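Quick one - first record:
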Amino acid sequence: MIRINQLKLPINHTDIDLRNKISKELKLNKHAEFSYKIVKKSIDARKKPHIFYVYAVNVTVNNEESVLKKIKTNSIMAIKEKKYKIPDFGESLLKQAPIVVGAGPAGLFCAYLLTEAGFKPHVLERGKKVEDRQQDVERFWETGVLNPNSNVQFGEGGAGTFSDGKLNTAVKDKTGRNTLVLETFVRFGAPSKILYEAKPHIGTDVLSKVIANMRNYLEEKGALFEFNSTVTDFIIEGDKITGVEVNNEKIYNSDVVVLALGHSARDTFTKLESLRIPMEAKNFAVGFRVEHPQQMINEVMYGKEMADANILPASPYKVTSNFPNGRGVYSFCMCPGGYVVNSSSEENRLVVNGMSYSHRAGQNANSAIIVSVTPNDFGFDGPLAGMKFQRKLEEANYQLGGGKIPQQLFGDYEKNILTTNYGDFDSQTKGMTTFANLRGLMSDEMEDSFIKGMHHFSNLIDGYDRYDAILSGMETRTSSPIRILRDKSLESEIKGIYPCGEGAGYAGGITSAAMDGLKVAEAVISKYKPL
């Protein structure tokens, strides 16, 4: 197979144009037969208004060696496609079903691989199945009445279900796990373009359907899903797990318990600490959701001519900066054409996130602009210190808005005055909002870094620090504040416990969490064989 990188074509090209370009690059005669598969597609907007699509393709052609002999460029090479392989079974017989705690990306993909390998996992999810969960979330956004176990954070699909559905990851894919994750999403209803887009996304509307299809398939293959099932205790004998307690009453026995908890399972973290399960606090970041008109972002990224033509997708962006005080300030979970959403999961605490639908057709772009925090900010009081810091911020945020999302224009934030009206554009939100002064939520040093970051980003995206950019407080759950320690076999010091995914501190998004779920499933399969 031949890989061609850096195939550049105009925005309005056709499939025939791409095919002709491939033929030309390989110096094929016009009658030569070949097939190709797009493996990556991105936008090159560095020479606006001349914008191009850039492809990487895998080509299958007869006489591959003779074709390559005619080529003298580093952008064309012979390759072998990586094929994911489920590992061989281990020697130990697993007499009970492996238990997977949590049905977010890590838990679902762990259960998926275990099921495909012949195990019949038992998935315990404290929230509801995704169809019912959607109703609870919509009701919360409309009324403010929170269901603590069925919300944006808890329920089938995890927190990523109500996000942009971004599927890009910085994790290197040496084993083919990333490809398997994307192919599995497509298998259960996602568009095939996610297999090659440089920054693939599904959108919350499509992702929820994919998750339901995935669960139905797993149930048909023998997996058991139980919703409204909170793990309230862990049964430990010596240095081994033997089961879990659910809803303070039922006991399920198993020698394998995968902890795919998600970063908001604070009561479970507290229980784990009480049982002396080895954990540690880890660094994370907090800040505000920042909204700009999507048209403004498109004009900066694509140029006004192409932005007005409306033939390119809503543009994403990524910005970052570091200051002498050691603070990093950067964008996180950027949502083109999206909404700021109330993502609370605890009574009297409020946290926001961003969300886009598949078409990214909203009027605003939003991103979390966050400031790094360390134990110097949240203290050294055990592994839950960062979690307690998050809760403190969310309580202050809730009180500031009286239960509604507190908002302020950036210019007013910098001047430390209350906002009374939006500027040239309105906020796009899911959940009720109110104006408030967001100063004082973060420390003086963090606030100073945030403001400096906003001004610095204006050097990268003209107008980013505009007076009427809308801030929404607060984004606190950018990543898990704890790490549940695991060894080279991916087990805790308490054998049979497998910490997994974002909540356990080993991932940072839908795809990386799903990949970690696969990795943990591989560890279980390599050690055990199913009954």
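second record:
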Amino acid sequence: MSKKPKGAKGTFSDIELPVARSYPRQLSRRWMLRTGALAVALVAVAVAYGQFFRGGRWASKGALSSAHAAFGADCSNCHATDARSVTDGKCSSCHEKFGDELGVYTFAAHYLYRSDDFRRLVPSAEETPCYACHVEHEGRHTEITRVGDARCEACHFASFADEHPEFDFVAEAIEDPAAIDFAHIRHVREVIKHQRLEDIEAACLYCHNAQPDGRAFESISFDRHCDSCHLTTTTSTPGLPIAGAVDDGTLGVETLEQIAERGGPTSRWVYFSNPNEFRIRGNAVVKSPLHHNDPWILDNLRRLRSMLYPDAGLADLLPVSPDAEPHEVRSLYEEAIATLEEQVIGLRGRPEPEIQAELSGITTLLERLKRQVADPFAPLDETRFALALDQKTKELEPEREREIEALIAELTQPCVQCHELKAGTIARVQKDQRVLRRAEFDHRAHIIQVRCLECHREIPIAESLEQEAASSDVTAVGDVTHAENAADRSAIQNLPGIETCRTCHASQQASDRCVTCHYFHANKSRRSDLLLYLDETLDETLDNNPKGNPDEEPTS
């Protein structure tokens, strides 16, 4: 046998071929087994940790919130097959109403929310996905709905204390279009006297009644708040000339009997009226007592206004003027619907075929309009109620026009004690006088800290009443105080500015986070009303008669 060369690593095969010096030395299999066993042990520890300490989700970054805990067994419930980020479509499959094209959780809904400005309803090309604000896998007790201010500050100002702008109604000195003559000081004084109250705030809450949740207030109601003092049994109209009483063409109002003889789909109220409320004195009629929204006055007012503005259009379906704020346009449609329903009831008893054909068309359009108005996010066109008040009847003589306007002034003399008269129409009172259209304010949460007049100081109610109490002649001082106080008008927004809010809402005091007052998503409790659902039969009827021509009977 030959001697092994110096430096050789050995031989291999039966013929003892030498192994080259550069041949790698083989590792010990025992070391490889130990390394593999250690790796398996580490995996086992990771699995055990995830099972006992992370709810069995060792492959994810953390446990899901309790709201989504049921989805944790299968990642594909939320994630795509390639394990990329969650898409908004996955969120919408549970949170959006099925088939909802608008979506209360989209940026478009955020822009539209509470403003009722449908010009905002434009999808954003840079829309932030849901998961960017609502972060998951942070643990069972994490509030996924709690979003930090940093998300809002990406688009808006960063600080409530420094950068938040003044409220618009203060910065722009916006006046309230209340269209009513109302003085707070005088009414607070009367409420305190008649209700025998000692607290001014109690007098405020006599009219400003909180809603059940205590956050906001109900609209002021004449029947509930004003009826006890206004339009009493002694209130009456002046003697008004009767239409047609003489043959000299003198303008006049129609009596109850004349309206009943004329008839019409909107005169059913005649059969429920008390004829003893009318007194005929020669060629004039006096009505007493009067009622709020008195149908006799409104019927005659509508007839006189039609002489001045014969092309009023849908505005003729309204009991008062069509002047409404953008967020109150829906009320115009609701009033028009009420008038159309009254007309439908009046036409149902008419047997004439042409009347029944007209009734069919009105009923079809009425049902479609009611469904549209029922959707709080359906865009409504307020221009359909626009009055061309600057274009009166060209054929009307100036003398006749002045005669009509004079009679309107006499007819509405009891009304204008509080209401404004505008172009032959009683001006609409703005019942909803919210000014924070895109924010929330909870009165219930603040009343335990401050009194009403500590924040609402624009009208000096307390100061005026204190001056009256210190005077021997209370009535005289009260009248002078009211006359000199130019701020005591219904058009004044008796609301505090942002500095009043900052006295409590600061970084070291009450919360000054964005979501304290603002919300991103629309009112989720109304999401079931977002879409306009029509019966298939109604759709077919409207397809056969798309313009709703009342003279054309829809095909069945």
